[in-house]
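Students often ask why inverse folding is considered easier than folding. One informal answer: many sequences map to the same fold, so there is more than one right answer. In these notes we will look at a single instance of the problem. The structure comes first.
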């Protein structure tokens, strides 16, 4: 086993952490759409999504809408990035 593999297994780069957090944000967003008829669950997931969005904004200084479609994105320096719901990098 190489040291690079061990480092990658336990220590994530800022880019990898941001992509992981964006995936979590997308899951919360889709749960909101799933529970639109149940007001209690809808409000619960909406509050979690708003808090998680604030967390991403505070930690990475970027705001990425959960509807943004991203494939194979690498954030070399994620400070100041804003992507709206209509963003798509599909080809």
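Output (designed amino acids):
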């Amino acid at each position: 086993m190489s040291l690079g593999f061990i480092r990658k297994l336990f220590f994530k780069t800022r880019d990898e952490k941001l992509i992981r957090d964006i995936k979590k944000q997308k899951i919360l967003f889709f749960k909101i759409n799933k529970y639109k008829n149940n007001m209690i669950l809808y409000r619960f997931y909406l509050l979690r999504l708003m808090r998680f969005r604030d967390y991403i904004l505070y930690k990475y200084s970027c705001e990425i809408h959960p509807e943004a479609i991203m494939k194979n994105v690498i954030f070399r320096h994620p400070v100041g990035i804003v992507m709206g719901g209509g963003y798509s990098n599909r080809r």
